[in-house]
Write a structure and sequence with these properties.
It holds the Pfam family Cyclin. This protein has about 230 residues and is mostly helical. It contains 10 helices and no strands. The longest helix has 24 residues. The radius of gyration is 18 Å and the shape is globular. The termini are far apart.
Length: about 230
């Protein structure tokens, strides 16, 4: 059954609100609203899980997504970094959230400050490869995410196998997650920043000026290549 005109109008309003449309995401705001709302949602989940783990109400299994220390970059800044350099569509962040929550349905798997960043970059990368017209290789995505190419490959494969390669999401599910993120906007002003204590370790996300310059150079090269191809068509 085709969606009603009212439903279609509601969907468009929701997508505009989150900055999922091309016209909205290209406006004055540097980043679409979905990044801020997604970050707030993930922060809340992380805080809740760490409270439960701290009180021994739940037990956690360590996964491939766990680092040994908490990254210095906040979830919000990390999401903005991914959007800036990965050049993926804003919808990839909604789809990525769906993949993350499907992954977290496994027994004793919880998202914490040690795993949320790697889960985010991997889920968004998988989403970009699935729905966007163009995407980069994992060597580039690794630089964006502050991890090695080898680790990026391993994280992607683990997520894909955990999802049983079922990446298709129906419209109703996508719509429900958009509405869920919109609700975050109502509670955003009440949110308090979470404070987490970094642990000692050697496995951490790595960012520096040379990596950022390499990402910028790759974006410029990709842009010129696309223009050259369009000129030949």
């Amino acid at each position: 059954m085709a969606p009603s005109t009212t439903d279609a109008a509601d969907d468009l309003e929701s997508y505009l609100s989150l900055g999922l449309t091309v016209s909205q995401s290209k406006k004055d705001a540097e980043y679409p609203k979905v990044l801020c709302l997604l970050s707030a949602y993930l922060n809340k989940k992380v805080q809740r899980n760490e409270e439960l783990l701290g009180s021994n109400e739940i037990k956690e299994s360590t996964t491939i997504f766990h680092g040994h220390r908490v990254p210095d970059l906040s979830i919000k800044l990390y999401a903005e970094r991914i959007f800036k350099y990965a050049q993926c569509s804003p919808s990839c962040f909604v789809l990525g959230l769906i993949y993350m929550e499907r992954y977290l349905q496994q027994p004793n798997i919880y998202m914490t400050s040690l795993s949320v960043h790697r889960l985010l970059i991997t889920s968004v990368v998988v989403a970009a490869k699935f729905i966007d017209d163009g995407f980069f290789n994992n060597a580039y995505y690794g630089k964006v995410g502050g991890i090695s190419t080898r680790e990026m490959n391993r994280l992607e494969l683990d997520l894909l196998f955990s999802l049983d390669f079922r990446l298709k999401v129906n419209l109703e599910t996508f719509r429900s997650y958009c509405l869920q993120l919109e609700k975050e906007a109502l509670a955003l002003v009440l949110e308090k920043p979470i404070h987490v204590q970094a642990t000692n370790g050697i496995k951490h996300l790595s960012f520096n000026n040379s990596v950022d310059e390499a990402c910028k150079h790759e974006l410029v090269r990709e842009r010129y290549s696309s223009q050259a191809l369009q000129g030949c068509s």
